[in-house]
Specification:
alpha/beta, two-stranded antiparallel ribbon, 11 helices, 7 strands, 48% helix, 11% strand
Length: 226
């Protein structure tokens, strides 16, 4: 049986579960977790050595703990920007202090993550046009990506944080790890994942209802991804 025959057996519209691999396929400015942290460290320090030193400290049982690496990178990124108010990252500091004027505390590190992904720089590909045609045959989308490519292609309503719990399952885009439009809700560090897991029961129940009633198609992940 080929994939077309398999999909034609679906009784309900499928849910797409989308990872970074799809964004990396179609966007020039998309990165794996490792690549993103490495880029931020290079932009901060001008070389890769700080990242390699940090990465080496979080190698456990043959795997790198990227959420722990991100925690250390966040601490150093914020520390360096505090000590250099009007330097290379002046724009990040400006946004940070504008938010603080309104009593909104957002990590400088997450502000910079959102800036990296904010603009969609597409690669030349006819596949994006074909993806747009598939919109009417998709129930909803779940993604761990921060960028806005999926809402741009499918025109689904993006849902972040608690908004996930109050949603119409049809035509929704569940951004379970946050979005560049709300950098304070980006999940990337060890503490972020701890907080997410503590609140995960309600979100998991919402997603399970989708899994029960719809086929799930995974795109942009590999078999080793958590």
């Amino acid at each position: 049986m080929n994939i077309e025959e398999f999909i034609m057996q679906f009784k309900n519209h499928p849910v797409l579960f989308v990872g970074t691999g799809l964004s990396m396929r179609y966007l020039k400015n998309s990165y794996s977790w490792d690549q993103l942290l490495k880029k931020i460290c290079f932009d901060l320090k001008g070389n890769d050595e700080f990242y390699f030193d940090t990465k080496a400290n979080h190698y456990v049982d043959g795997n790198y703990q990227y959420e722990s690496i991100a925690s250390d990178v966040e601490i150093e990124f914020n520390r360096q920007l505090i000590s250099d108010r009007n330097g290379k990252f002046k724009d990040v500091n400006d946004i940070f202090y504008e938010n603080m004027e309104n009593n909104v505390a957002i990590s400088r590190f997450k502000i910079y993550v959102s800036m990296i992904f904010k603009k969609l720089e597409y690669r030349q590909s006819d596949e994006v046009t074909e993806l747009k045609k598939a919109r009417k045959n998709i129930s909803s989308i779940i993604t761990t990506n921060y960028d806005t490519m999926l809402e741009d292609i499918f025109d689904f309503k993006p849902l972040v944080g608690n908004d996930i719990l109050l949603s119409n399952p049809y035509g929704s885009l569940y951004k379970i790890h946050g979005c560049v439009t709300q950098p304070d809700k980006i999940i990337i560090t060890e503490q972020d994942y701890k907080n997410f897991n503590e609140k995960y029961e309600l979100i998991r129940a919402q997603l399970l209802s989708l899994f029960i009633h719809n086929p799930i198609i995974f795109l942009g992940y590999n078999l080793g991804d958590d």
